[in-house]
Amino acid sequence: MLKIGNLNFSYGDLKVLWGVDIEVQEGEIVTVVGANGAGKSTLLKNISRLVKPGSGSITFNNVDITKCAAHEVVEQGVVQVPEGRKIFPQMTVMENLRMGSFIASARKKRDLNMDRVFTMFPRLKEREKQLGGTMSGGEQQMLAIARGLMADPKLLLLDEPSLGLSPLLVKSIFEIIAEIRKQGVTIMLVEQNVFQSLRIADRGYVLETGRVVLKDKGEALLNNEHVKKAYLGL
Ligand SMILES: Nc1ncnc2c1ncn2[C@@H]1O[C@H](COP(=O)(O)OP(=O)(O)OP(=O)(O)O)[C@@H](O)[C@H]1O
Ligand SMILES: [Mg+2]
Fold first, then answer.
1. pLDDT tens digit string along 5-62?
2. C-alpha distance across the termini of the chain, in Å
3. Model pTM?
4. Which ligand is nearest to the CA of 39?
5. Residue 6's domain is classified under what CATH number?
6. Residue 105: pLDDT band by 50, 70, 90 thresholds?
7. CA–CA separation, 197 and 218 (whole Å)
8. Owning domain of residue 42
9. Nearest CA owner, ligand 1 atom 6
């Protein structure tokens, strides 16, 4: 479904991605793990066209999306939930969700998707009139994911959805991610929470200073000696 080939990317003189090859098959959860500054967010921004992509290829269902504008990538069905939530703080929960279904194809399915996200996140339904910025950190993360789902994605890109959440909430966020996949959305996840994110992943990649150094099934990576030492403190 998504194919990234030999992607190189620099911010000015600073080279951040070095020959990255990553594939995501339809129906998979694929996790990219890596430390702070490894280039995880930059990788997602290259896909969703939040930066002008570097050299190399990125295709989605055989369409070259490096030539698309950001909104066209969304129209293809690739939707990013950005790092740090980035909801609209002065808008209500309901308004935030409606913003998510702004593109034409999603607007038609707005009511259906609204029901779907309220079933998945009953807390958002209870708080539909509350201002986004006054929701708790965990609620804002749920709102950010729900807003992404309102765009009716085929591929959902999640940038550190568990960041800053309590252990209990981290667990429920990962359960929700697994549930989203069950409902037919393919997921590419970047995370520093190596244990939880590889546990739910079909396959994973380890990114170190902008290079893919390991790739394998999620479970195999959890048992990999390097991953255990460098990321799991075992
Ligand atoms: N807009 C930018 N301009 C210049 N350098 C940047 C910019 N954004 C990120 N960088 C640099 O690129 C490198 C990779 O950053 P990136 O945000 O992709 O890392 P990350 O893996 O997402 O890290 P984290 O886990 O901390 O979110 C870092 O060294 C960062 O300082
Ligand atoms: Mg990041």
1. 999 999 999 999 999 999 999 999 999 999 999 999 999 999 999 999 899 999 999 9
2. 34
3. 0.95
4. 1
5. 3.40.50.300
6. confident
7. 8
8. 1-77+153-161+184-234
9. 11
Residue 178 resides in a domain? no
Domain count within the chain:
2
Q: Whose CA is nearest to atom 3 of ligand 1?
A: 11
Testing ligand 1's pocket by substitution, the residue of 17, 32, 41 carrying the most ligand atoms inside 8 A of its CB is 41
Distant-in-sequence, close-in-space partners of 24: CB < 8 Å, separation ≥ 6: 1, 2, 30, 155, 186, 188
* Per-residue pLDDT at 120: 93
Give the percent of the chain with pLDDT over 90: 88
Decide if 176 is inside a domain: no
Q: How confident is the model over 124-133, as a mean pLDDT?
A: 95
Q: Which of 152, 170, 195 is the last residue of a domain?
A: 152
User: Atom 24, ligand 1: which residue's CA is nearest?
Assistant: 36
Alpha carbons 25 and 14: distance in angstroms, whole number: 31
4 and 31, same domain (yes or no): yes
Residues with a CB atom less than 6 Å from ligand 1: 11, 14, 16, 34, 36-42, 83, 192
Instruction: Report if residue 171 sits inside a domain.
Output: no
Q: Where does residue 169 rank: exposed (0-12), middle (13-18), buried (19+ CB within 10 A)?
A: middle
